[in-house]
Write a structure and sequence with these properties.
Blueprint (H helix, E strand, L loop, with lengths): L4 H10 L9 E4 L4 E3 L13 E4 L2 H6 L3 E2 L12 H4 L3 H11 L2 H4 L2 H7 L4 H11 L4 H19 L4 H7 L5 H12 L3 H7 L9 E7 L6 H9 L7 E4 L2 E8 L2 E9 L5 E8 L5 H11 L6 H8 L6 H6 L11 H10 L5 H15 L1 E7 L2 E4 L3 H6 L9 H15 L11 H9 L6 H10 L12 H6 L5 H4 L7 H11 L3
Parallel strand pairs: 2-4
Antiparallel strand pairs: 1-2, 1-3, 5-9, 6-7, 7-8, 8-9, 10-11
Helix pairs in contact: 4-8, 6-7, 8-10, 16-17, 16-19, 16-21, 20-21
């Protein structure tokens, strides 16, 4: 929990954006806390105290600055977790575990008691699980208040609050203003029907063109559609189907998310998933500095300094796509994926611009006859075996557990080898250190290089190294 005061205060004085999100500054004389890049007058050193996460600063009684908006700062290293247990717990909280359950429920999923989990959070983050979840909800609510014209009652439900009264109390407690007063201070974006528009903040730069290029050839027909300006896909949340769209905004440090759903209640969990999909919490400067130390990667990092790791909306869907892509071209895997969706997917009631189906569920795939899709018998058995393992709970794809442990569980399934396991860790779970070392594209991008040995120097960012090497094949 200790932060070096000299280093932190020097970062505050420099306003270096590379420190953004690494810590927060509490100012005793004003009672607010800020990001290191805050444009306000730099406070005297005797008046500041530093925290690793927003929840810890709020717990100490500080309120967020209205100029630098610390709640929009991408995830800090502490929030990402300094232990496997805290990291997994944060993942579950980000997916809304504490919106409907208790700390004891969360601890049970992690195989421990609630008191021990709370102690771990206090040790690593300086805040309890409830405080972290509360901070997540209240700041998401503020963004909805200021970015939309949704009624306050709908915002409370969308942000995961159990009651409007609790929503009003926490907003006033944290921001020293009522929800109505917050809305009066800013302009709002018109929200039509059940369509929500939301800004996803990130640390610049952001290589959208490279990300769109990567996703274009891998988009599943009927489920995904990618253009140079936007990514669109079908989704299902709480049994309700809809469509989401994400795209860049010229001159702004955020992506714009548009969600059309039959019901926006609990949409906070959806936003967390989309932020993970588009790697909005990454620190491109830190990742780039680490990888650029290798002469092989240095020119690639300079060419694409804001390269991101595209993750999955649905880990099951992505993993099936990866298995279909074993030992065949990207185009062939895309074609077979389209056949699978057309025959087994759930049709949308209102198709839009080529988006026609939801991806089939694990139970549906496990019970289906896949022999007519153009797969070999062995490949069809692998897909069905994987789907059955997910459907009956033998393989859990939701919780981060580290690349090696996850890869070992994947390889234990028939027909799945190291390439698939590592690729799935990268794309399905968003693991930053996945590396499919046997991939032919990686070998073509680094002729004569012993990748297995060389990549050890790229830890813990080997996934980004792989993306840089793949992207270089298009140069």
């Amino acid at each position: 929990m200790n932060l070096d005061t000299d280093i932190c205060y020097s970062a505050v004085k420099s306003r270096d954006p590379r420190f953004d999100g690494r810590f927060f500054t509490g100012v005793r004389s004003t009672g607010i806390f800020c990001r290191p890049v805050c444009p306000a007058t730099i406070p005297h050193r005797k008046n500041v105290i530093f925290y690793r996460c927003a929840a810890a600063a709020e717990k100490a009684g500080f309120r967020p600055c209205k100029r630098c908006r610390p709640e929009t700062s991408p995830g800090t290293p502490a929030w990402l977790g300094t232990s496997a247990t805290v990291s997994r717990a944060l993942h579950y909280i980000g997916e809304g575990c504490l919106d409907t359950g208790t700390v004891e429920d969360l601890a049970l999923r992690l195989g421990m008691g609630g008191r021990h989990l709370t102690r771990l959070f206090e040790d690593h983050l300086g805040a309890s699980p409830v405080a972290v979840a509360q901070t997540r909800r209240v700041h998401f609510a503020r963004n909805l208040i200021e970015q939309t014209d949704l009624p306050m009652a709908r915002i409370a439900l969308a942000a995961g609050f159990g009651s409007v009264r609790r929503f009003n109390v926490l907003v006033k407690q944290v921001f020293r203003a009522t929800p109505t007063q917050l809305r009066q201070r800013t302009g709002t974006v018109s929200t039509t029907g059940n369509t929500l528009v939301y800004r996803l903040a990130y640390r610049p730069p952001y290589e959208w063109a490279a990300l769109a290029s990567f996703l274009t050839g891998r988009a599943i027909p009927g489920v995904e559609l990618v253009t140079p300006k936007a990514y669109r896909r079908t989704i299902a949340v709480n049994g309700k189907s809809g469509i989401l769209e994400v795209g860049p905004v010229a001159g702004k440090d955020h992506l714009l998310l548009s969600v059309s759903l039959q019901d926006l209640d609990g949409v906070i969990g959806l936003v967390s998933r989309v932020k993970r999909m588009f790697d909005c919490n990454a620190d491109p400067a830190a990742i780039g500095d680490h990888l650029a130390a290798d002469p092989l990667l240095a020119p690639l990092v300079r060419r694409r300094p804001g390269l991101r790791l595209p993750s999955a909306w649905d880990p099951f869907e992505m993993t099936v796509r990866a298995i279909l892509g074993q030992q065949v071209s990207v185009a062939a895997a895309t074609t077979i994926s389209g056949r699978l969706v057309d025959r087994l997917g759930t049709p949308l009631a209102s198709p839009r611009e080529g988006l026609t189906h939801l991806f089939p569920s694990p139970a549906t795939v496990a019970a289906a006859d896949l022999n007519s899709l153009g797969l070999t018998t062995k490949r069809a058995e692998t897909v069905k075996g994987f789907a059955a393992a997910v459907a009956d709970g033998r393989l859990v794809l939701a919780a981060p557990m580290g690349v090696e442990e996850f890869a070992a569980r994947m390889i234990a399934l028939p027909g799945i080898g190291p390439w698939t396991a590592q690729y799935v860790a990268m794309r399905s779970l968003g693991e930053p250190d996945g590396f499919p070392v046997t991939d032919l594209g990686l070998k073509h991008a680094s002729p004569g290089v012993d990748l297995a040995t060389r990549a050890e120097n790229w830890r813990p960012w080997r996934s980004y190294a792989a993306l840089h090497l793949w992207a270089s094949l298009n140069d």
